[in-house]
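Extended Data, panel c. Modelled sequence:
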Amino acid sequence: MSDSQGRGRWPIVELIYVAGLAILLIYAIFFMNPHRVGVLDVARVARETGVLDRMQREERGLQDEARERLGKLQQAHIQKVNDLSRKLKNAVSEPEKTRIQGEIDSLQDAFQQSVTAARQNLQRHEAQMFATFRKRLMPQVEKVAHKRRLDIVLDPATTVLITKKTPDITADVVAAARDVFSPSQPLVDLSLIETRQPVGKWTGAADDQGEEPLAAPVQPAKARQGP
C-alpha cells in the first residue's frame, strides 16, 4: 500500500521540479539579462533642431528652380515641334516625312529625359539630405543610449511597441544634437554620407540597405511635390 502511495506521489514531485526549472529559466531570461529598449521620435528631433524646416525650404527652392528651367525648355521644345510639324505637313516625299517625324520623336524623347532627370535630381538631393541628417544624428543617439544603458532604440513612427515602460530619449537626443545641426552646416555633406562607418555595437537598421535615414522625417505633401 505504501509503495503504491509513493508511486502516486512521484509525478507531483516531478511536476513541481519541472515548474521550478521553468521559473528559473524565465527569471534568467527576463531579469538577469534584460534587453533595455528606448524610444526615439526622429521626426521630432528633425523638427525641434530646425533641420526639417531647412530641408523643406531648400527642397521648395530646388523645385522652383527645376520648374523654371523646365518651363523654358518646354517653350523651346514646343516651338521646335511646331516648326517641324509645319514642315511635315508641307513635305511631299515619304522619305522626307519619315525624316521629319523622326526629328519630332527625338525631340519628344529628349524633353521627356530632361523631365525625368530633373525629378531624379530632386529625389537624389532629398535622399542625400536625409542621409546627412542620419549620419550626424547617430553619434548623439549612441551617446544618449549608452548613458541610459539601452540595448535597442526604436522609432515609434515605424515600429509597434508592446511595453508601457519603454523610456523616451527624444528630449535627450534633441538637447545633445542642437549644436550638431547648426544652420551654418550644409544639409548635404557628401564626404559624410559616402564614407561607410566601421561596424560597431551601435548600427542603424538602414546601414545594410544603403544610406537611408533612421526614418525620413514626415514632410507636408506640398513640399514633396515634384516639378
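The beta strands are 37-39, 152-154. This feature is highlighted in the accompanying rendering.
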